[in-house]
């Protein structure tokens, strides 16, 4: 089943995250306030031309692909982010902690946006929380660490938005929050995976120490209609 992860956004939009987007039989997209990601049935240069007619909004969009793609002239390439896709296939016991971790709600969204803008774990907007299962650590009224889930292609579930305020690094917050997500996913009979920037050496070392393994290189293209 691992070919599901070759096109994770498409497979999420036809399965576990179907309720958060729309599209056609060739092009799917998330509601922009949830996520900028769109998806093609097949990530080919020819299919990229379908985006112009199928995407009903003009805000920047993102494509996730395991192969490099030429971007058509009708689109402006804003950024390409090179990353790794990592999968977790160990077994996680129920995490134990004394940390003040709590579920995050819509009331926390402004603080979640502020933290993600500071730490840049990936796109996060006003309705991203609807992907679900967000938890965080609050210190003196300020959100200092969080994690959640994003793409849910069939039996896979993506650990996402893992971030810690720079003033609170090295305290084990990310490891604990990730462990909570791994346990939650496996209790639901899912398979955890995640994406990480290739240049984020600190995060990659943590994920490898937690027994994530690299499945493939992956590319994130952020583009905007001209």
Write the SSE topology:
Elements: H1 8-13, E1 21-23, E2 27-30, E3 38-40, H2 45-48, H3 51-54, E4 61-65, E5 75-88, E6 101-103, H4 109-119, E7 135-139, E8 142-149, E9 156-164, H5 173-187, E10 191-197, H6 201-209, E11 212-225
Parallel strand pairs: 9-10
Antiparallel strand pairs: 1-2, 2-3, 4-11, 5-10, 5-11, 6-7, 7-8, 8-9
Q: Mind describing the biggest β-sheet? A: 8 strands, mixed
CATH superfamily of the largest domain: Gcn5-related N-acetyltransferase (GNAT)
Helical content (DSSP H or I, runs of 4+): 10-25%
| Number of β-strand runs | 11
Element-by-element helix/strand order? HEEEHHEEEHEEEHEHE
Using the coordinates above, name the CATH class of the largest domain.
Alpha Beta
Shape: globular
Number of domains: 2
Any guess at the CATH architecture of the largest domain? 3-Layer(aba) Sandwich
Distance between the termini: 37 Å
Please, how many helices?
Answer: 6
Task: Give the CATH topology of the largest domain.
Answer: Aminopeptidase
Poorly predicted ranges: none
Which structural class matches the secondary elements? alpha+beta
């Amino acid at each position: 089943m691992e070919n599901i992860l070759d096109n994770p956004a498409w497979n999420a939009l036809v399965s576990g995250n179907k309720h958060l987007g729309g599209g056609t039989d060739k092009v799917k997209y998330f509601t922009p306030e949830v996520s900028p990601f769109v998806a093609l049935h097949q990530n080919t240069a020819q299919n990229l031309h379908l985006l112009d007619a199928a995407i009903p909004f003009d805000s920047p969009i993102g494509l996730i692909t395991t192969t490099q793609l030429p971007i058509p002239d009708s689109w402006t390439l804003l950024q390409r982010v090179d990353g790794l896709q990592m999968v977790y296939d160990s077994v996680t016991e129920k995490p134990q902690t004394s940390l003040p971790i709590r579920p995050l709600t819509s009331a926390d969204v402004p603080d979640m946006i502020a933290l993600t803008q500071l730490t840049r774990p990936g796109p996060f907007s006003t309705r991203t929380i609807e992907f679900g299962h967000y938890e965080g650590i609050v210190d003196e009224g300020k959100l200092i660490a969080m994690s959640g889930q994003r793409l849910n292609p069939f039996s896979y579930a993506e650990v996402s938005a893992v971030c810690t305020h720079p003033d609170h690094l090295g305290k084990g917050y990310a490891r604990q929050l990730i462990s909570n997500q791994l346990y939650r996913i496996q209790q639901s009979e899912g398979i955890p995976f995640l994406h990480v920037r290739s240049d984020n050496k600190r995060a990659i070392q943590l994920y490898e120490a937690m027994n994530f393994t690299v499945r493939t290189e992956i590319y994130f293209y952020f583009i905007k209609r001209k």
